Protein backbone atom coordinates (compact mmCIF):
# COMPACT_ATOMS: atom_id res chain seq x y z
CA UNK A 1 0.00 0.00 0.00
CA UNK A 2 1.42 3.40 -0.98
CA UNK A 3 0.63 6.10 1.58
CA UNK A 4 0.38 9.82 0.86
CA UNK A 5 -0.24 12.87 3.07
CA UNK A 6 -2.36 15.52 1.44
CA UNK A 7 -4.54 18.57 1.96
CA UNK A 8 -8.01 19.08 0.55
CA UNK A 9 -9.27 22.34 -0.97
CA UNK A 10 -10.74 23.28 2.45
CA UNK A 11 -7.26 22.76 4.04
CA UNK A 12 -7.96 19.51 5.94
CA UNK A 13 -4.90 17.27 6.31
CA UNK A 14 -5.28 13.53 5.64
CA UNK A 15 -3.26 10.40 5.03
CA UNK A 16 -4.48 8.36 2.11
CA UNK A 17 -3.90 5.48 -0.27
CA UNK A 18 -5.15 4.43 -3.70
CA UNK A 19 -4.42 7.81 -5.31
CA UNK A 20 -6.01 7.92 -8.77
CA UNK A 21 -4.74 11.30 -9.95
CA UNK A 22 -7.43 13.46 -8.31
CA UNK A 23 -8.73 11.62 -5.23
CA UNK A 24 -7.35 9.31 -2.54
CA UNK A 25 -8.94 6.93 -0.06
CA UNK A 26 -8.52 8.23 3.50
CA UNK A 27 -6.61 6.01 5.96
CA UNK A 28 -6.62 6.25 9.75
CA UNK A 29 -4.12 5.06 12.31
CA UNK A 30 -0.39 5.27 12.89
CA UNK A 31 1.97 5.37 9.91
CA UNK A 32 4.46 3.33 11.98
CA UNK A 33 1.82 0.87 13.13
CA UNK A 34 -1.57 -0.24 11.86
CA UNK A 35 -3.41 1.76 9.20
CA UNK A 36 -7.04 1.22 8.24
CA UNK A 37 -8.57 2.26 4.92
CA UNK A 38 -11.84 4.06 5.74
CA UNK A 39 -13.13 3.82 2.17
CA UNK A 40 -13.95 7.57 2.23
CA UNK A 41 -12.46 9.37 -0.79
CA UNK A 42 -11.28 12.99 -0.69
CA UNK A 43 -10.05 15.30 -3.45
CA UNK A 44 -6.30 15.93 -3.29
CA UNK A 45 -5.50 19.65 -3.58
CA UNK A 46 -1.88 19.57 -2.38
CA UNK A 47 0.65 16.90 -1.42
CA UNK A 48 2.42 17.21 1.94
CA UNK A 49 5.68 15.68 3.17
CA UNK A 50 5.15 12.00 4.08
CA UNK A 51 6.42 12.30 7.66
CA UNK A 52 7.14 15.47 9.64
CA UNK A 53 10.84 15.44 10.63
CA UNK A 54 11.66 15.63 14.35
CA UNK A 55 15.32 16.60 13.79
CA UNK A 56 17.53 17.50 10.84
CA UNK A 57 21.18 16.47 10.87
CA UNK A 58 23.90 18.25 8.89
CA UNK A 59 27.61 17.76 8.52
CA UNK A 60 29.79 20.69 9.64
CA UNK A 61 30.56 21.59 6.01
CA UNK A 62 26.82 22.13 5.38
CA UNK A 63 26.26 24.56 8.26
CA UNK A 64 25.67 28.16 7.23
CA UNK A 65 28.22 30.58 8.70
CA UNK A 66 29.95 30.31 12.08
CA UNK A 67 28.30 28.25 14.76
CA UNK A 68 29.15 27.33 18.32
CA UNK A 69 30.43 23.75 18.62
CA UNK A 70 30.58 21.61 21.74
CA UNK A 71 33.10 19.04 22.96
CA UNK A 72 31.39 16.27 20.97
CA UNK A 73 32.02 17.96 17.62
CA UNK A 74 28.39 18.84 17.06
CA UNK A 75 26.97 22.30 16.69
CA UNK A 76 23.66 24.05 17.18
CA UNK A 77 22.29 26.79 15.00
CA UNK A 78 19.08 28.83 15.44
CA UNK A 79 15.92 26.89 14.63
CA UNK A 80 16.93 23.68 16.39
CA UNK A 81 19.03 22.18 13.59
CA UNK A 82 21.94 20.10 14.89
CA UNK A 83 25.04 18.77 13.22
CA UNK A 84 25.52 15.01 13.25
CA UNK A 85 28.47 14.15 15.54
CA UNK A 86 31.51 12.65 13.81
CA UNK A 87 34.31 10.54 15.25
CA UNK A 88 35.15 10.10 18.92
CA UNK A 89 35.08 12.54 21.81
CA UNK A 90 38.28 14.59 22.06
CA UNK A 91 40.69 13.46 24.80
Structure description:
The chain is mainly beta and 91 residues long. The chain has 2 domains: 4-48, no CATH class; 53-91, no CATH class. 0% of the residues lie in helices and 42% in strands. It has no helices and 9 strands. It has strands at 4-7, 13-17, 23-29, 35-43, 46-48, 57-58, 68-69, 75-77, 81-83. The strands form 2 sheets. The protein has a 5-stranded antiparallel β-sheet, with no helix packed on it. Strand 1 and strand 2 (13-17) form a beta hairpin. Mean pLDDT is 76; it is low at 70-75.
Low-confidence stretches: 70-75
Describe the sheet with the most strands.
5 strands, antiparallel
Helix-residue proportion: under 10%
Q: Gap between N and C termini, in Å? A: 50 Å
Overall average residue pLDDT? 76
User: How are the strands of the biggest sheet laid out side by side?
Assistant: 4-3-2-1-5
Element order: H for helix, E for strand: EEEEEEEEE
Q: Overall 3D geometry?
A: globular
Structural class estimated from helices and strands? mainly beta
The count of helical stretches stands at 0
